Amino acid sequence: MAIKERSRYRLTEDFNELHIFAYELRHHVHQVRIRRDVGSGTIIWESHNEFLVRTEKSVENSDYHRTGLNAFTDYGLQFFTTSEQHYFYSENRESLTPEDLVCHLLLIENDSRHRKYALLLVAETGVSLESLEEAAKVYGLMEVIAPLIDFLRTQGEFNSDRTPRWEEFETLASEYGVDL
Questions:
Q1: How many Cβ atoms sit within 10 Å of the Cβ of residue 53?
Q2: Which of 3, 18, 117, 147 sits 20 to 30 Å CA-CA off 73?
Q3: 1 in a domain, yes or no?
Q4: What is the pLDDT of residue 13?
Q5: Quick one: pLDDT band at residue 167, thresholds 50, 70, 90?
Q6: Which of 169, 113, 110, 168 is nearest to 144 (CA)?
Q7: What pLDDT band is residue 7 in, cutting at 50, 70 and 90?
């Protein structure tokens, strides 16, 4: 019924339909929870018992943690945002880490502006690049985060089409009072 690949288990091909059913059921349960708790929203990312949701409404429920650019204000980074709100649902967490916020932001929108804002939060909070990498693995974002980590680790010597120029990032950091 199940086989082990690397360090994870997965269902064999004979039980692929069971896997699809379980995934769809989990997704449905999350959607029902959103309708009940929030009214409406769009799931951006989900795992077995957690999800990231976009909604037009503010949520006052301790299982929903504010995330996205609006949560960056907790670290002194204020950005212009849309009316959309983003929340991370988890019954098992009391708060989100800066690493979570970086990953959530890049799940919400992975463009050059949001990557720069994610880099600012990493610089402002001083999170370890190793812990950021671990969080990226959880959210399935290693391809997105790896160039950003290399960019920070080398202070811009590593760059790609996914990273800003170091001088551009220094200017942005200066504008927001973030020390590099």
A1: 25
A2: 147
A3: no
A4: 84
A5: very high
A6: 110
A7: confident
